[in-house]
Amino acid sequence: MALREHIQNHTPYDVEYRLRRKSGEYRWFHAVGLAKWDANGRAIRMAGSISDITERKINEKRLLLQYSVTQVLSEAENLNDALVSIVRIICNGLDWRYGGIWQANIEMNQLQFMVAWHDEKSEIRHFVQNRKAMIFSPGKGAPGRAWSTRKPVWSADITKESWFIQVADAMNANLISGFCFPMMLQNTVFGVMEFFSRNIEQPDENLLQMMATIGPQVSQFIQKMHIEGELRLSEAHKSAILNSASDGIITVTEKGGIVSFNLRTEKMFGYSDRELKDKNINDLIPGLTERTPEIVNKLPVEFVGVQKDGNNFPAELTVSGTKMNEKNILVIIVRDITERKKVEKLKNEFISVVSHELRTPLTSIRGSLGLVLGGVVGSFSEKAKNLLEIANNNCERLLHLINDILDIEKIESGKMNFNIE
Question: Using H for helix, E for strand and C for coil, what is the string for the chain?
């Protein structure tokens, strides 16, 4: 096509193309030329040159491959999707059919399958399915050998290797060459990457050096994603614990800016998550920051909480000081004591009833019974005397009981004076 256009239209003849050699290897060439035309405009001869640019094309492709892998690692949010993309990029960049990643489980002393990518040819699916089910111990198969020796394993024809496990599957999938290399992380084999090709591929030192650069990057990425996953799980556990608490838990700056809060805080004050983030703690509990120095790390104190709709409610606060990222932070536990106040009111009303409605008439009854028993109204039978004494004793017991109740109330309210001798 390029030659025809050059001859017919006199356009520059400058093309790159590849040819497949007898061995199955592809080589890239760069051809440039210029035709010589006669007076009638017919091409009578052509001069030019052809050069082998295979190495240049390979280097360009591998540079692009490395860039693409780095881009995936920097932008990825999902571990599995990122690893599949990396394997796919490498396979497409090298024109290999299959790639997979195995992670070393040190405790179980085995390599466990993580992800794989392969082309869409149907004959390879059985190979992949069986591959995923495998577990490699040190020295077993290509991955196990790369793990135990800490060196790459390359075979131009895996079907002739005694250590290769899936010879029949590989032959059915038209896989010929393969290589594995250890993914290092801080001088430890973190895992193994493997790739298989339909062509005969001789060991390529430049390719292995490139993979030795990619391997640690992938290992660090996997480790980072595992750590981030554990942190997210830990934060989820903490959040679940905080959100299940019956008290509001709020962290604020020294000036009262709200840093964080649990779900109970939202319900207690009637604000949404976004609204609370824009609030100051004094909007919720007026006057708190002014009294912070006197109540921090002390016993609980009572304040008045103000809800979004303007309603007030009694609150009991426990304020603790701590540091977060080298900054002083206050942790405030807010307990809605509305129900407690209602109970206290009912108890006070009961104490009032006991004090005024029961003790006063009982005192009169006891006094009257004492006078009767003292003979003020004259003599009476022995049987009547026994009944009066029973009534008088019961009055005394009731009065003692009422006095005990009142004494307990005085103790709880701090109104009881003790003289310790």
Answer: CHHHHHHHHCCCEEEEEEEECCCCCEEEEEEEEEEEECCCCCEEEEEEEEEECHHHHHHHHHHHHHHHHHHHHHHCCCHHHHHHHHHHHHHHHHCCCEEEEEEEECCCCEEEEEEEEECCCHHHHHHHHHHHCCCECCCCHHHHHHHHHCCCEEECCHHHCCCCCCHHHHHHCCCCEEEEEEEEECCEEEEEEEEEECCCCCCCHHHHHHHHHHHHHHHHHHHHHHHHHHHHHHHHHHHHHHHHCCCEEEEEECCCEEEEECHHHHHHHCCCHHHHHCCEHHHHCCCHHHHHHHHCCCCCEEEEEECCCCCEEEEEEEEEEEEECCEEEEEEEEEECHHHHHHHHHHHHHHHHHHHHHHHHHHHHHHHHHHHHCCCCCCCCHHHHHHHHHHHHHHHHHHHHHHHHHHHHHHHHCCCCCCCC
At 359-404, the pLDDT tens digits run 777 777 777 877 777 777 777 777 877 887 788 888 888 878 877 7
Q: What is the pLDDT of residues 71-93, one digit of tens each?
A: 999 888 899 999 999 999 999 98
Rounded average pLDDT over 282-290: 92
pLDDT the model gives residue 234 = 83
Prediction pTM value: 0.60
